[in-house]
Design goal:
By secondary structure, this protein is mostly helical. It has two domains: 112 residues; 151 residues, no CATH class. The protein contains ten helices and no strands. The chain is globular, with a radius of gyration of 19 Å. The model has no long low-confidence stretch (mean pLDDT 89).
Length: 272
């Protein structure tokens, strides 16, 4: 399985190279090449997850190695869904790089053997994990769209339009993509929290235990609720929305990784 992880990593890296070259040279065959490498890497990533599931009968997020594998898969999969809807081609380089970083890191971190426990055999846990991972991947794409928005806005403000102006999508398209990504991520995060509460009740006898991961997940939910509320009520659009998307994803990263390394709680079993 290590060989397949290396192959998936290489395919994601090649995909990012293809998308970056497309950004520079604007040749459609480079975009198609990036797509093919990303799709093949996603397929390999899916096989890896399926193999781990077949081995244990449980969704593979029991340690950091497995968590990173699933994170890379989620980013690639969510990008394909948004690419079909919005056709923001250059966002593929960002998504492929992020997926590559996750899978490469999964190969480098030590694999901690976790004993299979019946407590993890729950449909509520599966729904919780899938919703959270796909929701976080949507927030990652919103961050990427925000970065591109700021780069394009800066290019437009210059009297002489430079490299990015001709190669990046319109501000409206980037803003719309970022908003759709955040709305999707927020909906999935909400589902993830609700199914997490139900699973916690069945596993530990209580819906909420003030575990650090729970607290920071709640903070993340409130932050994105505020971002959506600001957009719908006071018109948080454009650069302000882009900056908030970047800040929001920074909080997601801390919730996803930082909490497990800096704070102790019962969620540590999934990511350490």
């Amino acid at each position: 399985m290590d060989n397949l992880i290396i192959v998936a990593s290489l395919l994601y890296v090649l995909s990012s190279v293809g998308y970056i070259l497309f950004l520079f040279f604007q040749k459609n065959y480079l975009h198609r090449l990036g797509q093919v490498f990303l799709a093949t890497g996603f397929l390999c990533n899916s096989i890896i997850i399926g193999y781990y599931y077949a081995q244990t009968g449980q969704i593979p997020v029991r340690n950091l190695h497995e968590t990173l594998i699933v994170a890379g898969w989620a980013v690639a999969g969510v990008f394909f869904a948004f690419q079909y809807r919005f056709q923001v081609k250059v966002l593929g380089g960002y998504a492929a790089l992020l997926a590559a970083a996750c899978v490469v890191a999964s190969f480098l971190v030590p694999v901690k053997v976790v004993e299979t426990q019946s407590i993890f055999n729950s449909i509520w846990l599966v729904a919780h994990v899938v919703s959270i991972f796909v929701g976080h991947a949507s927030f990652a794409l919103a961050c990427g769209a925000g970065i591109l928005y700021i780069a394009q806005e800066n290019a437009i403000k210059r009297k002489r339009h430079g490299f990015f102006y001709k190669r990046l999508p319109s501000l409206d398209l980037l803003d719309g993509t970022g908003y759709a990504s955040i709305a999707t991520g927020f909906a999935l995060l909400t589902v993830g929290l609700i199914t997490g509460f139900i699973y916690a009740k069945s596993a530990w006898g209580r819906f909420w235990s003030w575990d650090p991961k729970e607290v920071w997940s709640g903070i993340t939910w409130l932050l994105y609720a505020a971002i959506l509320h600001g957009r719908l009520t006071v018109g948080w659009r454009g650069k302000k929305a882009a900056v908030m998307a970047i800040i929001g994803f920074a909080v997601v990263l801390f919730t996803f990784f930082g909490v497990n390394f800096l704070l102790k709680g019962h969620h540590g079993v999934f990511t350490r």
